[in-house]
User: Which sequence fits this backbone?
């Protein structure tokens, strides 16, 4: 019989994604909305910690394959710009059906433009 020790994760890296339903509900209630043809974005200022992003895809979006694809695509967009996000915000993204039909370059361009318009990206030096 093998004995396994349960070690707590001492240095758990904080996630860049919002997952707790209470955090998501707070952003839904208090966030300011920005809309594009490909997604809606809610932004809520929460403090000084690093910004985190939640992705919400409801059943109306389509079957599980389409919903999961939308989440994968938007998680990748978040990872690409996370270091450039202004700290202290909680963001919620609600992808629209048209988003997964777009090429990645166009989706990334619209994503960055909407973050820029909402003053959620740090100014670039140069």
Assistant:
């Amino acid at each position: 019989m093998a004995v396994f020790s349960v070690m707590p994760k001492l240095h758990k890296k904080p996630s860049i994604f919002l997952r707790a339903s209470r955090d998501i509900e707070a952003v839904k209630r208090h966030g300011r909305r920005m809309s594009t043809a490909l997604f809606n974005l809610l932004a809520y200022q929460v403090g000084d910690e690093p910004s985190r992003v939640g992705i919400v895809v409801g059943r109306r979006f389509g079957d599980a394959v389409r919903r999961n694809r939308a989440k994968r695509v938007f998680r990748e967009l978040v990872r690409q710009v996370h270091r450039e996000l202004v700290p202290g915000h909680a963001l919620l993204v609600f992808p629209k059906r048209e988003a997964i039909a777009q090429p990645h370059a166009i989706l990334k361009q619209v994503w960055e433009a909407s973050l820029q318009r909402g003053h959620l990206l740090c100014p670039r030096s140069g």
Q: What stands out?
A: The first strand starts at residue 32 and ends at 35. Residues 36-117 form a domain with the Ribosomal Protein S5; domain 2 fold (CATH 3.30.230.10). The radius of gyration is 17 Å.
